[in-house]
Design brief:
heterodimer, A: 0% strand, globular, B: 8 helices
Chain lengths: 409, 301
């Protein structure tokens, strides 16, 4: 027990901070700093001018931030689900405390990013607590909000218990977390699925697509993080760290994630094909939205970002035996799967049920055309920077906690 | 997992699922009585008591008398509906503008646009106008999606919004098939109007926008000022049949200002009311009936 903690303590320190002075470390810190500075400017715009610089309106009320929110909570659930199942099923690499805590930190970071994202989108940010204080569970949104908080609680308990792997509560708590992580990404899809007013959303396949997307993007984010982290396995005199690094860099662990991503991509594209082809074959109420996705102003989001950069290219890279290519593929999937949310979100809203409504009263906020503005992109940069910071802090705190635990023992 | 862990896992997951099911079921079953009802909602109004009733009087006067009669009943015995005779609508948009003025709607917020549709092929074309207020649906999809109980169906049928409770998530906007809800994004008509103007006494406006834009509106019988980002800034907003006017015996502004007398308003529970007469005598239609929302706005076509 003590030995394990010692190993982990040293390893966590290695993972939390990159080798001092390495170009890789400087690159990551530089990227984070740029994102933060740009993001803070966006936050200042958002706070000082409210929603005025934003591109969404009353007919397309949800935009980039809501897509980011669903992407964030999806990654959070997906990462946790993979980590918890890997731990419970004793899959290679997942039983290690370092890996488990890395997964928990990543899950919390993605969740915080998602929740912050939706907070920036609220018309009354000062009343966000109403959803917890006086919720109406007839709304999928309130149900989700409570689920996220319960999930964060479970992640916290799992993190605490991860230092006591012998505890007979760790696995049951992870099972509960896996149950939540299975539910809330699907519920995100249900949030859209229950909206009868939008034929494109009102589909029973929507929760399954969101769940598939969450697992795929979650696995991709985890693999991407593992590829980005450079444990100091080569540092002289750190044999234990080397062993930990071997776990994180093991072909088995990364190979498993690679297979999950490939399977997830294939399943998602099959589901997507089913959804789109039926609509094109027999055009119904949601045909205009589908046409907008495929051939409308947002065609490039589907064909270039989603299909090419988020599907075909990663599949090609993952099919190769070069592990550096897997990292690139994982990064592409983790980032471009945001487009799956946008492809559901925006076209679904951009087709009105009442013809002529947009022309009935003219105002930029009463338009079915949405393009994210600079302010929205800048705030998105801030959210990504916050996610990175939370992950980094999670790793640091985990490392410190090991030391504390070690000294207590 | 050993047996103990398996039992614990099952218990935790079962408890989580049970809590979720209980929360949803409780919310589904309970209809929170947000509004007062009974005798305290009875209004003895003295509107039009001095004006003698005439058989040939304007329909506005008839509707106003019926409104006074309806207000003398408890709220749960009234059932407000609107009937719009599209054959009479000339597309003047007076109702739209009157509504904007009455509720002091900022830019980008509209409660009652008039949808214009061109039918036929040139030269045999015809313009068709469809005013679109909130449908005050009996099965309102906007209510169930609200995560904070900020919107609900009143006993008299009006779907109300609590501006102090609304968090501005805009889920209700997406749920309304009629696009009847708009969000107040905090815009002002005079934003940037004084940009570049000199400071001091010659400056046309003291603040960032003209002070008249901060004047309160009286929706739902309360004073709402948008000054300093006050509600309803950031909230979802919608037509409420001018509830604040009904309380004092006045018809909704759109009905009053309709130059063609195409908008009728009244109590469907009154068998002698004009709206009941119109609904029973004419072939009326509702918008998007296949959505199953049961609108309380009827169109004579």
């Amino acid at each position: 027990m003590v030995d394990t903690s010692t190993h982990e303590s040293q390893s966590q320190a290695g993972l939390a901070g990159q080798p001092e002075g390495s170009s890789w470390s400087r690159l990551l810190w530089g990227a984070w700093f740029v994102l933060l500075v740009l993001g803070l400017f966006g936050v200042w715009l958002r706070m000082s001018q409210g929603h005025l610089p934003a591109g969404y309106g009353s007919y397309v009320p949800w935009g980039l931030w809501i897509a980011l929110y669903f992407h964030g909570v999806g990654i959070s659930g997906g990462v946790f689900l993979i980590g918890a199942l890997g731990y419970l099923l004793n899959l290679p690499g997942f039983r290690h405390g370092t890996v488990l805590r890395l997964i928990l930190s990543l899950s919390v970071a993605a969740m915080v990013t998602g929740l912050l994202s939706v907070w920036f989108d609220l018309g009354r940010m000062d009343r966000a607590h109403h959803i917890l204080v006086s919720p109406s569970f007839t709304s999928m949104m309130a149900f989700n909000a409570w689920m996220y908080n319960a999930f964060l609680g479970v992640v916290g308990v799992s993190w605490y218990l991860s230092y006591r792997p012998a505890s007979s509560w760790l696995k049951p708590v992870l099972a509960l977390g896996a149950f939540f992580a299975l539910l809330f990404p699907g519920q995100s899809g249900a949030l859209f699925g229950v909206v009868d007013a939008k034929p494109y959303w009102n589909s029973a396949i929507m929760p399954i697509m969101f769940l598939t997307s969450a697992i795929t993007a979650g696995a991709a984010t985890l693999l991407c993080v593992l590829a980005l982290l450079r444990p100091r396995s080569s540092t002289p005199g750190s044999a234990d760290e080397g062993r930990e690094a071997d776990v994180l860099r093991s072909a088995e662990l990364q190979g498993l994630l690679r297979r999950v991503i490939m399977a997830g991509l294939c399943v998602y594209f099959v589901l997507e094909f089913a959804e789109l082809s039926i609509s094109l074959w027999s055009p119904g109420g949601h045909a205009p939205a589908v046409e907008l996705v495929l051939f409308g102003v947002y065609w490039w989001v589907f064909w270039i970002i989603h299909l090419l950069l988020g599907g075909l290219l990663p599949l090609g890279l993952l099919a190769s035996s070069r592990r550096s290519a897997w990292g690139v593929a994982a990064f592409l999937v983790a980032v471009t799967f945001l487009s799956t949310r946008l492809n559901v979100l925006v076209p679904g809203q951009a087709v009105g049920e009442l013809k002529g409504l947009q022309e009935a009263f003219s105002h930029p906020r009463l338009s079915y055309v949405y393009h994210a503005t600079g302010m929205e992109y800048l705030v998105a940069c801030f959210l990504v920077a916050v996610g990175m910071a939370v992950f980094f802090l999670g790793r640091r705190i985990s490392a410190v906690a090991i030391s504390r635990f070690e000294s207590r023992v | 997992m050993n047996r103990r862990e398996l039992i614990r896992a099952g218990a935790l997951v079962g408890a989580g699922a049970a809590a979720a099911v209980t929360a949803v079921t409780a919310s589904r079953l309970s209809g929170p009585p947000k509004d007062p009802s009974g005798p305290e909602t009875v209004r003895k109004l003295s509107v039009l008591t001095q004006v003698k009733e005439d058989v040939d009087e304007d329909v506005l006067l008839r509707m106003q008398r019926e409104l006074v009669t309806a207000m003398a009943k408890p709220v749960e015995q009234r059932r407000w509906i609107m009937v719009i005779d599209t054959r009479k609508c000339v597309g003047c948009h007076a109702c739209t503008i009157a509504c904007v003025a009455e509720n002091k709607l900022p830019p980008g917020v509209v409660y009652r646009p008039v949808v214009t549709e061109e039918r036929g092929e040139f030269p045999n074309v015809q313009l068709h106008f469809t005013p679109r207020p909130c449908m005050q649906c009996d099965s309102p999809p906007c209510v169930s999606v609200c995560p904070v109980e900020a919107t609900w169906k009143r006993p008299d049928g009006i779907v109300a919004v609590d501006y102090d409770q609304c968090i501005g998530c805009r889920y209700c906007l997406t749920a309304c098939p009629y696009g009847a809800r708009t969000s107040d994004f905090g815009e002002h008509y005079t934003d940037a109007a004084a940009q570049g103007a000199p400071e001091g006494q010659d400056r046309p406006m003291a603040g960032p926008h003209a002070p008249w834009e901060d004047a309160p509106n009286f929706e739902y019988g309360k004073q709402w000022s948008r000054q300093d980002h006050g509600s309803p800034t950031g909230n979802a907003r919608k037509c409420h049949f001018c509830l604040h006017r009904l309380e004092v015996g006045q018809l909704p502004m759109c009905s009053t200002t309709c130059i063609g007398r195409a908008t009728y308003f009244g109590d469907a529970n009154d068998p002698n009311s004009l709206v009941t007469e119109l609904v029973t005598k004419h072939h009326v239609q509702t918008l998007l009936p296949h959505k199953g929302t049961s609108p309380r706005v009827y169109y004579v076509v």
